[in-house]
Amino acid sequence: MAPALTGSSFTANWNRQPLPSLANRIRITMPPAAPRSLSSAEVTDLVSYLLKMNDVKPGGVALNLPLGGPAARGGVNTSWTTYGADLASTRYSPLDQINKDNFAQLRVAWRLKTNNLGPIPDRLYSATPLVVDGVLYTTAGSARSVVALNPGTGQMLWMYQLDEGERGQFAPRRGAGRGLSYWASADGSDRRVVFVTPGYQMVALNAKTGHLIESFGKKGIVDLKEDNDQKLDLVRANIGLNATPLVIGDLIVVGAAHSAAGNPQTSPDAIGYVRAFDIKTGKREWIFHTLPRKGEAGYESWLEGSAERNGNLGAWAQMSADPELGLVYVPTEMPAADYYGVNRPGDHLFSESLVALDVKTGKRRWHYQTIHHGLWDWDLPCAPVLFDLVRDGRKIKALAQPAKSAFLFVLNRETGEPVWPIEERPVPQSDVPGEKTSPTQPFPTWPPPFDRQGVSIDDLIDFTPALRSEAVELVKKYKIGPIFTPPALARPDGPLGTLMLPMDVGGANWPGGSFDPETNRLYIHSHTTVYSLRNVPAELSTAGPANTAGVLRPPGTAPAAQPGGSRFGPGGPFGPGGPPARFFLGPTVQGLPLIKPPYDRITAYDMNSGKILWQKTHSSTPDDIRDNPALKGLNLPRLGQPGRTFIGALTTKTLVIAGEGGVHSNAKGEQIALLRAYDKATGDDIPGEVKLPGKQTGSPMTYLHQGKQYIVLAVTTTGDEGGGELIAYSLP
Fold first, then answer.
1. CB 527 within 8 A of CB 641
2. N or C: which end of the chain has fewer CB within 10 A?
């Protein structure tokens, strides 16, 4: 029997981990001579045997099944205990009460409207709730309240809200965020939920009562702007976090995020270091400098002393962890500014990298940089998915890191070495004065990208010859080319910018992938939208850039509108929720996206071979495209939803489930989005219309409560009465 499953090694590696992690480890590794050959009943028997052999008492450790309801048949897990379902970030549940035969029968079980949980509506409600011990926990509303609900009825059990005053108003990452984290002591007597406020404070609450844990930090709160190896304004510093902290053992690991840095108005005033804290006391245990200091590894990659005058470079995404290896996997973002690198010569580690840190010390074990000297805002946006595969008769502890660029980086999670070759290939170079672009970038040779990359004439809209002709004429005003074509030095007489695909938000984004550990299949949603990337020649030593629109033009002249599109300055006519997703499209042709559909898709990979199993359009065609006069008389298939769509998938025993990224009119004239389900093996649509009142904006999760399976997800609606809402679906 494997050492990790016996004696003290078992206790060290598996204590306080969710039961599915142990069951999945048994399933994919045993028996050693024929991994994955055990039946579900045999896996259950082994789990029971190991718990008994290691003297695990009922209620003693988090390995126990939840106390709030009966287990599903076969002893499978019924809860959802971390943002990604487990520390491997699989977003998987073995529940199968909801299946292809009854999915169409789903009905709303309960709803939580969040508009009253903050001063303004949340216009991008993105939290994924947790269900532990028969209670549902989530963040909600623009003030990021924490609520505990009855998971069967939605009845509120308690609520906590911290009024941060000016500190919250100046926060760069407001709203409900992605959610919260859960921890329980070994004997189960101490159960906590932990979250990070908009103003970058970490709060620990009693999971039963919602009261502050007085022994944590200063009366329940750790100020994350303090003890951060830099001096930060406690009210106005440009640092915060939307992601949930990562709980691993008795440590909680926290990243950082900043305001968007496409065209910063001032020099960066904060660096997004990664830290770990003791979950019981709030004491800082270690810190990792994402932007290395003098004398630290990586400092030499920042030329001309640029490490001393830069900032941002946080870890704003979710993280994953492997307790057996003692590693936490940290995806990082760019330094400022996103599209202009004259102020930061060099390849600058550890930007746009996956960094594996020792969970006990915070020391770097390995890293892999996915982009050198980035100019495209293609941060690593999501947690890597951890899994095992067998290649050439050898088991590999692997991970798959989706990227905004639509590459899937598959690495050995012990060493950081590529599982399949990744080549450094020559890429186009910048013509911006002073910009020193990297001559090469990393290209995974396998698996294939999950979305389109770069823009050519063949990518342009071709519904009709007239539309194609207009598109070809339009792109003459822009620079086009393969992936990694740098931002153009924009001028009024052209080029007006570089047409970029994927756009700055991907490709993939923060929802990441969903993984079926029984079949080693990975499912990723992505959006296919072109973006006009205009160089922003920021002079960060002054109060702000001289050309805030990103186009070089004679002094005193007004910025011109983009051909085929429109331009609004900051604050524009859209109100506190900001512009709608469709506003962020690049140039359009008669109101239609410049490039061919589909505009969003789901891709399924076999991660044993790296092959794409299927790929298909996900969202319904929006009304303004379907009813566009230029398409009259054409019989078109489902085209997908253009724009900034952030859609996470949920994988269960039998289905892949995801909501749509926009609304459309159905046959009854109702404005709806759909909650869709697909056959995991083929991608075939599961018939039936399950309606959502608005677009999906938070990744779905599932749990079993009192014998009934629920699917819960966050949606956001528009209009005067619009805002965020958490909706639970179940069978009648």
1. yes
2. C
